[in-house]
Amino acid sequence: MDVEVAVLVPVKGLDTAKQRLGPVLTQHERSRLARWMAEGVLAACHPLPVFVVCDDPLVAQWATDSKARVHLTSATDLNGAVADGAAAISTAGFDHVVVAHADLPLPKTLVDVARPSTITLVPDGARNGTNVASFPLMHRLPAMYGPGSFARHLDAALRIVNASSGHVGLEVRADPDLALDVDTVDDLRHPRLRKVLPSWLPTNQDNPSIR
Question: Per-residue pLDDT tens for 119-150?
């Protein structure tokens, strides 16, 4: 049976993103980096349809310009936005959703995460956060983001699997690309990202201005 899959990408205001990079990047550089990563995530979702959930009209316009569908939410936190977006995707007739953060600099394997009748979790490198989550909408994984979210999502997924009497499987995927996100200054210096992050970043050793 064919499964209709959509990707959900929650995006906050791009102009105020990545405040923890303030010690090394200006506000303009942080905004530019956030936009660059978000655009890369949306591009990596092809050919799957993409929904951007947001509460910012400027983000909504950016998403529309990027050929994504927009779901404006009244939720004030990430968990509420993801739950709201997943509900909208279910209402739109999709069977399965992939929830991906917008700050993944190596998103090329994103569309491979979705597996029918399977909850798939992709933790970050420290197995603390949940960078990507994929699940059937009939067996919806609750959104429990924040520090330590991977453990909470794993516990919730196990409960769903056990209650499904074998109808839902579980996969924890160690994906070295999707495990990388950019939240801190140390993330910017990750050796695997040196050739990937934009050369205009002042933290990039390939930036012509620091040669």
Answer: 999 999 999 999 999 999 999 999 999 999 99
Domain ranges of the chain: 5-183
Count of C-beta atoms within a 10 Å radius of residue 29: 18
Report d(CA 134, CA 5) in Å as an integer. 10
Pairwise CA distance, residues 65 & 44, whole Å? 16
In sequence order, the β-bridge partners of residue 170 are: 119
Distance (Å, whole) CA 27 – CA 15: 7
pTM of this prediction exceeds 0.90: yes
5-183 CATH, one of 3.60.15.10, 3.90.550.10, 3.30.70.100, 3.20.190.10: 3.90.550.10
Residues contacting 90, CB < 8 A, separation 6+ = 97, 137, 140
